[in-house]
Amino acid sequence: MGSVDYRSLAEGIVESVGGEDNIASATHCATRLRLRLRDDSLADKATTERLPGVITVMEAGGQYQVVIGQDVGRVHAELGRFTTLGDGSGDGDARNDAPASGNLFNRFIDVVSSIFQPVIWPLAGAGLFKAFLSAATQWDWLDATSQTYIILNAAADSIFYFLPLFLAVTAARRFGANQFTSMAIAGALLYPAIVALNTGESVHFIGIPVTMMSYTSSVIPIIVAVWLQSYLERFLDRFLPAVIRNFTTPLITLALMVPLVLITVGPITTNIAEGISSGIQEVFDSAPWLAGGIMGGFWQVFVLFGLHWAFIPIFTNELGTDGYSLLLGPLVPAVLAQAAATFAVLLRSHNPERRKVAGPAAFSGFLAGITEPGIYGVNLPLKKPFYFGIVGGAVGGAIVAQGGNAANSLVFASLLALPAYTEVGSFAAQLVGTGVAVAISFTLTFLFVDRERRARTAAAADGTADDTPATPAPVATATGASGGTATLTRTLEVQAPVSGRVVALSDVEDKVFASRALGEGIGIVPSEGRVHAPVSGTVVAAMKTGHAFGIKTAAGVEVLVHVGIDTVNLGGEGFTPVVQRGQEVEAGDLLAEFDTDVITRAGYDTTTLLVVTNTKDLAAVTPVADGAIEHGAPAVHVEI
Predict the structure, then answer these.
(1) Does residue 342 surpass a pLDDT of 90?
(2) What is the pLDDT of residues 178-235, one digit of tens each?
(3) Collapsed DSSP state (helix, strand, coil) of residue 20
(4) pLDDT digit string, tens, across residues 364-423
(5) Beta-strand (E) ranges in 7-103?
(6) Share of the chain above pLDDT 90, in %
(7) Structural contact between residues 428 and 365, judged by C-beta atoms closer than 8 angstroms
């Protein structure tokens, strides 16, 4: 579908089913746009099927299912650009945004993690850069007042200082907003004149009081702003005349959103933060261990929501009046506990992409207290490491606070900052509390966080284990008669993604798969609840519900693994995905775990489909499996 105009296709589908007013809802699974129509008689099935990019149309389960293939997410995204339907993704990439499973906080974490994903590597590199600079100044290799340091620090710190600008782009892609308008909103929050207003003096906008806060390095304000922007833009695009829409929509959006964010986000965040900070300060007077536990456990949560800014004046005031700050004491366990969780993931995970992030992130976290790469690239996406870091930080923070340890200067909590904690209170309590925090966080993460994608092993000729799956070698075949031209045909063995019993594709209880409209393949009735990658390649589609994955090999073979039939309706219940779109996988790596009992109790067929979706573009696709099969065994033979 590379040549298909997704906007035109989306518009054609809407028109062919009777217009937007006839569509009650629009969702999608791995291959189909699922529409619920108010009046089925208004839909013209033949017209829909003739649209370029539509494979077929199927009416089942009260849904008008337009089968498109693995690019369905792109079509669904386009719906959000000109209707109130769809997800509104504007990046041109399939996001496969089925409703996220889990509680509200977990859904929030999923959104934040997906927004941070594209900037994780620059964050990790910059964090490592800051760690080296911190070490250089700590050991007197570099003068922190020198112009050399200023230039290098600008290079290392800019992505953190201007983080809202980066997140504006990725959030716009996530929510389907205009990314350049989003950047303009973020730019306004970081505008020097706006930053200069954050002096504590009264600020007004057309008579409305505005409580200013620092938006540098902030996360939540810009994400909320872009989320609201996406709805406003879709509303304006529906009602503004086309002749003025292109410039009027950004004009109105900027005029409304920038003041709105400053008037609402600033006061809300500041009031909450000041309430928390003053409350903790009062608790410190009566129960230091409790206040230390709160600071150690929730400091990174405060940072996540931008609530930590209210503590800066308290830190500064303590240092100015007493010469030390007790509230800074528990921050070392808080920060290093998250770094320890990241380090445990580095040792525990078999996911090469995760390990690549976890290594430098753990180093910068321990050495310089830069936890953003570790939190947003490792701990938050996996959730449990973040929670375990909170537990470790809380216990360690309680120990430090009970020992009365404090910092005599305003420092980033890290190993390099420990000298600032040697003069006030019990430094031994600081070391013990930090060590306990690290031990708890590391141990819990190492023991209870899934190893993610398990490496597939095969016995090598010399009897040693090889974690790298064999890559099929090209096979030369002659074509034509004597004197004909020799061509090179490459072959690929697509493996069974699950263990179970093979069924012919024509026998599965889904007309679209059975008709091979989506491509050649097989079905497998699974005997266990684990689905593995059938080929090595890039995950190009990963439903958040965990029931379907699309993988594209380096040679261009596109393979779809779909667990169960109509299991998208479960909304993720019974499924635990362990990979995300954009990750590289090796054949045999774990994609997801699923509970067959949950699927069958809900009345759905567990048959797992393995389909080569670009069959028509390949020389030959031949199922080779029959009867009982183990995951990893050859299932489909492909000639490229």
Answers:
(1) yes
(2) 889 999 999 999 999 998 888 878 889 998 988 888 888 888 888 889 999 988 988 8
(3) helix
(4) 889 888 888 888 889 988 889 999 999 999 999 999 999 999 988 877 788 888 988 998
(5) 23-28, 32-37, 56-60, 63-67
(6) 35
(7) no
Catalytic residue among 28, 29, 308, 631: 29
Q: Quote the CA–CA distance of 370 and 163 in Å, as a whole number.
A: 14
> CATH 2.70.70.10: which residues of the chain?
475-639
626 vs 271, higher pLDDT: 626
- CB burial class (10 A; 0-12, 13-18, 19+) of residue 493? middle
* β-pair type (491-495, 486-489): unpaired
- Average confidence (pLDDT) over 269-298: 85
Residue 415 to residues 149, 364, 401, Cα–Cα distance (Å): 21, 10, 18
Beta strands across the sheet bearing 634-639:
491-495, 634-639, 620-623
Q: Which two tokens stand for residue 605?
A: 């067929």
Report the chain's C-alpha Rg in angstroms: 28
DSSP single-letter state for residue 139: T
**Rounded-to-integer distance, Cα 305 and Cα 159, Å:** 18
> How far, in Å, CA of 285 to CA of 176, rounded?
48
Does 97 have pLDDT greater than 70?
no
Give the number of other CB atoms < 10 A from CB of residue 409.
15
Which tokens go with 467?
């974690």
**In this model, does residue 598 exceed pLDDT 60?**
yes
501: pLDDT strictly greater than 90 = yes
Tell me, what amino acid is at 120? I
> What is the C-alpha separation between 315 and 558, in angstroms, rounded?
56
Quick: pLDDT tens for 537-593.
999 888 888 899 999 998 889 999 999 998 888 888 899 898 888 888 999 999 999
For residue 339, the one-letter residue type is A
195, exposed or middle or buried, with CB in 10 Å at 0-12, 13-18, 19+? middle
Beta strand 486-489 with 537-542 is unpaired
Evaluate if residue 85 carries a pLDDT over 80: no
Structure tokens at 43: 């839909």
Short-list 531, 520, 536, CA closest to 625: 520
CATH number of the domain at 6-99, please? 3.30.1360.60
Fold of 475-639: Glucose Permease (Domain IIA) (2.70.70)
Q: How far apart are CA 27 and CA 582, in angstroms?
A: 22
The letter for the amino acid at 463 is: G
**Is residue 472 pLDDT above 70, yes or no?**
no
Residue in 28, 76, 547, 562 annotated catalytic: 562
From the CB of residue 307, how many other CB atoms can be counted at a distance below 10 Å?
Answer: 22
8 Å CB contact between 426 and 403: yes
- CATH 3.30.1360.60 maps onto the chain at 6-99
Q: How confident is the model at residue 473 (pLDDT cuts 50, 70, 90)?
A: very low
Q: What is the 3-state secondary structure (H, E, C) of 351-381?
A: CHHHHHHHHHHHHHHHHHCCCHHHHHHHHHH
pLDDT at 477: 40
- Sequence-distant (6+) residues with CB within 8 A of 627 are 501, 502
Q: Which two tokens stand for residue 549?
A: 């994955």
* pLDDT at residue 211 in the model: 82
Annotated active-site residue 631? The verdict is no
Burial class (CB in 10 A: 0-12, 13-18, 19+), 481: exposed
Q: For residues 284 and 324, what is the distance between their CA atoms, to the nearest angstrom?
A: 14
Residue 23 contacts residue 37 (beta carbons within 8 Å):
yes
Please state the separation of Cα 116 from the chain's center in Å.
7
Q: What is the mean pLDDT of residues 295-307?
A: 85
* Active-site residue, 28 included: no
